[in-house]
Design brief:
Keywords: Signal. By secondary structure, the chain is mainly beta. It has one domain. The chain is about 5% helix and about 40% strand. It contains three helices and 19 strands. The strands form four sheets. Strands 1, 2, 8, 9, 10, 11, 12, 13, 14, 15, 18 and 19 form a twelve-stranded antiparallel beta sheet that branches. A three-stranded antiparallel beta sheet has the order 3-7-6, with no helix packed on it. A hairpin with a 2-residue loop joins strand 4 (about 65) and strand 5. The longest helix is centred in the first third of the chain and has 9 residues, at about 80-90. It is globular. The chain starts with about 35 loop residues before the first strand and ends with a strand.
């Protein structure tokens, strides 16, 4: 059974992802290096374009109808800044799964799915090898905790080279601008570049609609988006290299199913994969603004997909240093 109060199903862009206050690159880059990671995937290997769809709900993360967890109201109570409060009300899945969009079983004793379309779905299309994608990113982690002040106040740095296609064959390229720290209650991102820890699920950092997953490296930042060699957008993006959370049928695992055994993984011999999401969040001097990503890929409803979620399934960790000076 689904409760419908206050929710609009049309495209459901309000169920998408992370948003940050806009800021200049900022931050003193001269601090000592704590951690470093270099990750890449060569062209011609397995890449998926993730489509919007519903998401199964983990009992461990979201509780039961009699004892719900990760609801929006108590999280909003921790927010003092009106722009961030408004953002979380419009994009609640940044931190929660609001109860009105949770379906239950017939007996109303368990949650079944979050019915609004999100990027954390089981629906995805594999891309042909000659139109898959490539990325290489370098993450420089100089602080162990988020820094006070504006989200741009961080000495962490990121370098990125990337290109990929959508299922219609359009070619995308991202240019990285600067690191940001998500200004949400409970988020702990190590200054916007995160190396060696846990994200999503019950951690409080990242959408709880993703399972809790061991993360080798992750960043949050602002990127310029090019499609077919034309600059079309500037948005907030998030990349993370994690243990494998996609099963053999490409469904997204629940927290209760993690960690996946080798035989359960989409590619059994692959121990990690990389998620890259471009979010429907436009940074402005006044703060984050909800705005669909200007993709070129048309969905079955005749509208263009409002976010980008790429899965690079055969990535390589080129370099991974902890505690370097």
């Amino acid at each position: 059974m689904m409760h419908k109060t206050g929710f609009k199903a049309a495209m459901c862009l309000a169920t998408l992802l992370f948003a940050m206050e806009a800021s200049a690159a900022g931050g003193d880059k001269s601090g000592p290096l704590i951690n470093k990671a270099v990750i890449q995937q060569e062209a011609g290997k397995t890449v998926y374009w993730v489509l919007p769809g519903p998401r199964q709900l983990s009992k461990e993360v979201f509780g039961t109808p009699d004892n719900p967890k990760r609801t929006l109201k108590p999280i909003l109570a921790e927010v003092n800044k009106p722009p961030i409060r408004e953002l979380l009300q419009k994009l609640p899945v940044l931190v929660a799964a609001p109860e009105p969009a949770r379906k239950t079983n017939e007996a109303e004793t368990e949650y079944t799915v979050f019915s609004q379309p999100t990027p954390f779905s089981d629906k995805a299309r594999p891309l042909p090898p000659d139109q898959s994608g490539f990325f290489r990113t370098t993450l420089l982690d100089r602080v162990a905790e988020d820094q006070p002040g504006k989200p741009g106040n961080t000495p962490d740095e990121v370098q990125l080279e990337s290109w990929f296609h959508d299922p219609a064959g359009n070619k995308y390229r991202l240019e990285f601008d600067h690191v940001v720290q998500p200004p949400f209650p409970g988020y702990e991102t190590q200054g916007g570049v995160f190396i060696d820890g846990w994200l999503h699920g019950t951690t409080g950092t990242g959408s709880p609609l993703m399972p809790k997953e061991y993360t080798r490296a992750a960043w949050w930042g602002v990127v310029d988006l090019y499609i077919n060699d034309e600059k079309v957008d500037t948005k907030v993006a998030h990349l993370m290299t994690t243990e494998v959370v996609r099963k053999r049928d490409y469904s997204l695992a629940l927290d209760e199913e993690m960690p996946l055994e080798s035989s359960e993984r989409h590619i059994p011999d692959q121990e990690h994969h990389t998620h890259l999401i471009v979010m429907p969040i436009k940074p402005t001097p006044q703060g984050p603004v909800f705005e669909p990503v200007n993709t070129a890929f048309e969905l079955s409803n005749g509208k263009n997909q409002p976010f980008i979620h790429m899965m690079f399934e055969e990535d390589s960790i080129v370099e991974w240093q902890l505690g370097s000076q």
